[in-house]
Amino acid sequence: MQVVSISSLKGGVGKTSVTLGLASAALAKGVPTLVVDLDPHADASTGLGVDPERSHPIGELLRNPRRADLDAAVSPSAWTARAQRRSPSTTTRLDVAQGSALSGYYDRPDLRVRELRRLSRVLERSSQYELVLIDCPPSLSGLTRMAWFASHGVALVAEPSLFSVAGTERSLRALELFRSEFTTHLETVGVIANRYKEGSPEHAFRLSELRTMFGEKLLSPVLPESPQWQQIQGAAHAVHHWPGDAAADTAKLYEELLGNITSSLPQG
Predict the structure, then answer these.
(1) Phi/psi at 200 (nearest 5 deg)?
(2) Which residues in the chain come in under a pLDDT of 70?
(3) In this structure, are residues 195 and 230 in contact, taking their beta carbons and an 8 Å threshold?
(4) Which of 112, 115, 216, 234 has the maximal Cβ count within 10 Å?
(5) Strands, sheet with 75-76, edge to edge from the N-terminal-most edge strand
(6) What was the pLDDT predicted at 89?
(7) How far is CA 61 from the centre of its chain?
(8) b/e per residue 238-262 (b: at least 16 CB within 10 A)
(9) Given this model, what pLDDT does residue 255 score?
(10) 182 by DSSP, 3-state: which?
């Protein structure tokens, strides 16, 4: 099982959108996947069409990880049912550990190591997923550190703007400090450039800046601004299930990105 945190220490860069795009690609490729919605705002849960009455929030599982039954607590995403209607032979799972305000209790900077292990222990109780995507809060507080502790790798989401580029550099420094503090083998998967506007001189300049600053850590492909994205998310649909050439092109980009992320992590 590969566990990847999708992170940004700056809000508004499309971190949850990237998580959903990667989840859509995993479903399309037939990879059994769990999305852990660790952000108390629970936007990923909403985008995946989770029925809150059919699952237990991840915050409940974190309270007592030794007794947590992850497999019983997760909810199937609405995307799974749509994929099965499109192709009845499909058996791939895309499940969600639902986000809620309950998780906010752990979003504190003073968590001890024992508390940082809570998510790791919850995930250890399941073996039915090949990929776990953790949608982290846009901060470096307790929940993000808990996610990093449970992960094999971290992908940082940035947009081509001054503040986001500067924030991404701080995020990489934070990852280095985290690794040295806990002697972990956590990989920095790389930086995902999101919402790039073709034809914008400012975006072209900032993308060049990202390439200069992060080199091979800037992941391919760059994700362009998509005018359809808000509509797709508002309908709680996978981009792979949305009609039209533009959505199909975006879906291919996420498939390539997912492949580049998972290939950089330990296998098995």
Answers:
(1) -90, 115
(2) 88-91, 267-268
(3) no
(4) 115
(5) 75-76, 94-97, 33-37, 131-135, 2-7, 153-158, 187-193
(6) 65
(7) 19
(8) bbbbbeeeebeebbebbbebbebbb
(9) 97
(10) helix
The pLDDT, as a whole number, for residue 267 is 66
Res 248: pLDDT = 93
For residue 87, how many other CB atoms are within 10 A of its CB? 10
In 13-141, alpha helices (H): 15-28, 43-47, 58-63, 70-73, 78-86, 113-116, 118-123
The pLDDT of residue 202: 94
CATH 3.90.180.10, applies to 2-263 = no
Rounded Cα gap, residues 169 and 15, in angstroms: 16
Count of residues in the chain: 268
Could you tell me which residues come within 8 angstroms of residue 266 by beta carbon, excluding any fewer than 6 positions away?
2, 152
Q: Kindly report whether the peptide bond that precedes residue 221 is cis, defined as omega within 30 degrees of 0.
A: yes
Contact in structure between 27 and 94 (CB atoms under 8 Å): yes
List b or e across 185-199, with b for residues whose CB sees 16 or more CB atoms inside 10 angstroms: ebbbbbbbbbbbeee
- Do the beta carbons of residue 102 and residue 57 sit within 8 Å? yes
What confidence score (pLDDT) does residue 92 get? Answer: 81
If one counts every other C-beta atom within 10 angstroms of the C-beta of residue 107, the result is: 18
pTM of the complete model: 0.94
